[in-house]
Amino acid sequence: MPERISQTWVYLSATPLFWLTMTLMAYQTAHWLYRRCGAHPLANPVMISVVLLVTLLQLTGTPYDTYFSGAQFVHFLLGPATVALAIPLYGQIQRLRRMAGPLLIALTAGSLTAMLSAVFIGHWLGGSLPTLLSLAPKSVTTPIAMGIAEQLGGHPSLAAVMVIATGILGAITAQSVMRWLRITDPAIGGFALGVAAHGIGTARAFQISETMGAFAALGMGLNGLLTATALPSLMAWLKPMLAF
Which pTM value belongs to this model? Predict the structure, then answer.
């Protein structure tokens, strides 16, 4: 019987559908725990899902490539899901036009702060050039960050890890930071959360209010565009200053 179970596991673990099912089950479990905890930020579903899946992969000795053969279907849906965020944003189009100037200033300041803080703190801690190139796009959504890191000569996998960590941290601390700074306007808070914490922060913003989620989606999209455009030139300018 143990041998038959082992053979069954070897067969299932090599099947893409199995790891897709595990990914969906992990998130459903995490979302159930999140609701049971009264939607507390510390019970972030993404964070819990990551812990559950990493634990399962470690216990079973499953390589990441095997896991991703199934999870790639969820990864593919990131693109359409990101585009779909334009629908609630369209409902705020009139307010968006009135706030275009302040939002542009906030986008520039937030995007530069996200990139420069990662580079200078990483350099101060002794990070290598490929590491710094992987840290710089930490505040944009995962597919964009991985593409930027690969283009610049960084590590796409490290960039993905930092993006997820940044998003989870932003989602957990967002409301506390907003209360501390006395930010009550959902548009302002949402835009800041989208710029700083990309998709995970945007998901958290939608849980708070539709207006906050719409502006978070705008911040996430614009920050991804600005980072992809500006970061290569910015890093070329910074390299001599940091004595790489």
Answer: 0.76
pLDDT in tens, 114-136: 999 988 888 888 888 888 888 88
- Mean pLDDT across the stretch 174-180? 88
DSSP 8-state class, residue 140:
S
Q: In 3D, which of 102, 108, 84, 115 has the Cα closest to residue 187?
A: 102
Alpha-carbon span 94 to 187, nearest angstrom: 13
- Decide which of 76, 107, 122 is a domain's last residue: 76
φ, ψ dihedrals at 145, nearest 5° = -60, -40
Domain that holds residue 182: 85-244
**Residue 83 carries which side chain, given as an amino acid letter?**
V
Residue 46's identity, in one-letter code, is V
3-class state of residue 175 by DSSP: helix
Q: Say if residue 92 is in the same domain as residue 21.
A: no
What's the residue count for the chain?
A: 244
Q: Is the pLDDT at 7 greater than 60, yes or no? A: no
